[in-house]
């Protein structure tokens, strides 16, 4: 059996689903970041696979963009997270409700 | 200057109101009276310069606002709007002159002047967007008047008034936008000019939808049953001056808009909806008259009686013939005068006793004979006695509708019975009998300042009842042109037969000539 | 002649305004004198017009100014003096002049003296408009105007609950009828295109019978209200709460006869629809009997006279309904004279007895009130229709009309009623003036009225006696505009039998009344006597329970329904729906604010839900765009 485009897309969808569930279920901010990374990377896989399939490099270019943005996002996010942890002693999502309407 | 008289009528009170903020509060009253008197004089000048024999728009002004979408600042008056504009400036004048017992007088006068601007604007606008802007703007001063100077439930009443009418006018706005879009599709150019919309002949299905959209906006303003419940609250809580202007002028916006928009733009739909609306109007007349009879508060009696009379106005409007429409416009003026006067009269007794409950009074004819006389006169005018202004309007409205339906007119005619019942009952409770309540024993009769407002109203009420011609003639000319326009525009055969053709004589002459050949 | 027309019409208005000027100031004689003199001017002008018309002058027609004009409608203030209206003008101006002068004495001590004259003159003005107008709209002005003045005058003593109640009742009942009248006017306008009498009547000949019938019915409904015909009759008896001169002028001589005038005026219409005329006549005969029966047992002097008025109005409607318009108008005129006289006499008695109205508490007054006694007796004789008094000529004529037109049931009813009329009239006279002086029990010291009041009444007395002799002159005059049918019983023997029989019957009734009530055995009833406990007595003295039925089954339910409409429907249904909609919007906001919890994970969940929602929408629209052709055909099939 040859590994084709569909396999990559299925893998990407599965990863996206895992990431989505993670985003919704996790209460720990750090794990939330992990889930977000999984989401982003699932999209990256799809981009790369489709780019290869069409022989168009634009998709792979986007992947680099996404990786770069994800990295900076994590950097900023982790920084904020550390500050939060220093102030409140936890990184539990449910405690962060100062913006309640 | 006469070329721009309408703009002056609109913006002079607004500018004066701005200046009013810097006037010292001791002289604000004199200032307000002066401004309102000038405004009234200007509106009289407008009447003087008005050509009564012309049926079209006069004193038209036009300035482009958003040319790309055909939104222009267009003004003009005809016989239909002329007298309502005069009435508005008249009530603003006597309203300010007779203000009594008002805290924060300065703000009140400034608000009233702004209100005058919006009223003049609504009745002279000939562009739908300009009309809409003034229509909505008029809510704001009224909201302040009820909310700031009202009774204990004022916040509820003012918010209810605002939101209810506002919701209705949003539907109307959608209708206007759709109408402009249809115009664009038909002609390739955008226009919000009402006179240009008149020329557009729409298929009946579109007319029906548009009619409903406009109807909701207007019906809430009138207010028609079952959209009337904001009115008793607004009247019940508003200070005297607020009720006076609300009843005399603001309610007329709805009925005026029916004649300005719905009838000439959607003649087929008007005929289609004539009977359902007539039924609503009759419910309005009888039902609210009965509700008025049950009231314990004299101001609520007058408030519900307003709704009842507006039913006759609606009926006259939807008679769709010259007699009926002229009558309904005349009744707008008549009802404005009479209900305004009645609210002023209720204000007189409220100022003295700080209560409006009829059970608190009784035998007032002994202590306040002049007050009882003027109240009696206005009562009889409200009941529609001949030789008072209301009779002319009511008679013509019912006469007009009789052409369309016998049985509905008979039902609506019970207005003269049920109207007499609640009015006489209220008068008996307040004025007849002996003075039983100690607090009433030494009440002072109407004073000079109150007479200043009441005497002119009484005179006009009788004068227009005996000699309505100067007012009725211009109305008649404009209405004839509208009815003819409706007849020419209508597409269904039902509408053609319901709306009379005024040039019939010429045509029959022609056909008989052809027959001779 | 136009000058006299305007004088006749507007001098009462001037008098009213003049007295009105003194409305708030204390009682002053001049406020009574000037309107009375002005009315005399009006009377003189009417007389000049009458002489002019009698001498064969053409009718006077003026158009003062436009009132309403819109579309095809054109209504002027137009006035016409022809043979019919000049008769009415004479009646109105004469009776009202007498009543005005009389009232100067009668209202002498009342603190509303000035106000009274203002109202009374305003009434005369309205009545003049009513009879002189040349179109239906003008008639309606007068019609409503007299209604207003009647309201003001019945409720003149407004501190009395019963008076104001009666005033409102009268106004509202008249309004019910006025609606009928208004509808009649609308019908006339839309079918004939005009409200002017001459044009409208001219156009009626070509109209459909059904339309004409409806016109006739609706106009007559209007007449029923003003003339207090069954079932709109209850207000007339209650209207006796007003001052007695008012009862004499408005509720006996003039206003209540306006209905008859309307039918007479609309004679070209009613000639075309004899079946409606027959209905009018039948109702008239019924009312004549019905009202007379209530007068038999009543214990209120003024109400008895009021019922008698009602009964006589029935007679007039019989004549008018049977097409004998001139007879109706003649009886209207004769009746105005003797009935006003009767009322004014009753006013003297009331003054003497300190406003006591129960004739059982009087008795023997002839000794102290000679003048009044003579006048009231003669008026009653005239009312009973004894030769050669006025009533004989007019009332017997109506009986003859019924006989000649072969309506024998109506004739019999009227004949019987004539007997009843004689009985209750003389029951009243006997109770007041004859028998024991029962008033002494109540400590009253009666006295005769002022001399000038009696003098003021004397023209009426004279006319009540001699009015019959004008019959032929009158006949020749009015038949210029009214159908000139003479009513003669064909065989002379039948005629004499009828006439003498009727006279004998009436005289017997009078004798019976005297026998029963003019003796010393009459006691003030206390509710224990056998007669008072009989069922028919109770039914009659409670006016057939009709006022009770109106109160219980119309007025009260109306009040309750009104309260129900307000408290239950307006507040709890209509307004609650509006508030409910506002409430739903408000509470949905209240509920959904939980979404905005500030909790990151919930917000993320909403974000995911939103993404899914948007994605599915995209799919739906994508499909819709792809298959738009098919969808359009389906939709057009559904007619959208």
Fold and architecture overview:
- The complex is a heterotrimer of chains A (101), B (517) and C (640).
- Chain A has one domain (5-96): Helix Hairpins (Orthogonal Bundle).
- Chain A contains three helices and no strands.
- Chain A has helices at 5-25, 29-54, 58-88.
- Chain A is elongated.
- In chain A, helix 2 packs antiparallel against helix 3.
- The N and C termini of chain A lie far apart (55 Å).
- In chain A, 77% of the residues lie in helices and 0% in strands.
- In chain B, helix 14 packs across helix 18.
- Chain B has a domain at 275-467.
- Mean pLDDT of chain B is 90; it is low at 512-517.
- Chain B has a two-stranded antiparallel ribbon.
- Chain B has helices spanning 5-20, 28-49, 79-97, 105-124, 128-137, 139-149, 154-187, 194-198, 204-221, 230-237, 240-265, 267-272, 274-294, 298-317, 322-353, 364-367, 369-383, 389-404, 406-413, 415-431, 448-466, 469-489, 493-498, 504-516, and strands at 58-66, 71-77.
- Chain B is mainly alpha-helical and 517 residues long.
- The longest helix of chain B is centred in the first third of the chain and has 34 residues, at 154-187.
- Chain C has helices at residues 2-21, 30-54, 83-106, 113-132, 136-154, 161-192, 197-204, 209-226, 234-238, 244-253, 258-265, 267-272, 274-297, 301-321, 325-352, 370-384, 390-404, 408-433, 451-466, 471-478, 492-517, 535-541, 546-592, 600-626, 628-638, and strands at residues 60-70, 73-81.
- Chain C has 25 helices and two strands.
- The radius of gyration of chain C is 32 Å and the shape is elongated.
- Chain C has a two-stranded antiparallel ribbon with strand order 1-2.
- Chain C is mainly alpha-helical and 640 residues long.
- The longest helix of chain C has 47 residues, at 546-592.
